[in-house]
Amino acid sequence: MSHTITVRLDADLAEWLVRESDRTGVSQGKIVRDQLERAKAASASQSFMRLAGIARGPRDLSARRGFSRK
User: Cys-Cys with 9: which of 14, 18, 32, 38 at CB 3.0–4.6 Å?
Assistant: First the structure.
């Protein structure tokens, strides 16, 4: 591992992490890394959403010259 971070957890989340680690036999660090990877994958699958609302132009694209329905 190349980076170390410190995260402060509230009591409920810390208890969940301990229980999950004990239940699965997986280290707490591995659980946190896995959850971060899931969040990363979920955000990558919707990267197109960063483009929502930035297009400029007429609402009805058929209003462009040469493509008019009139």
Answer: 14
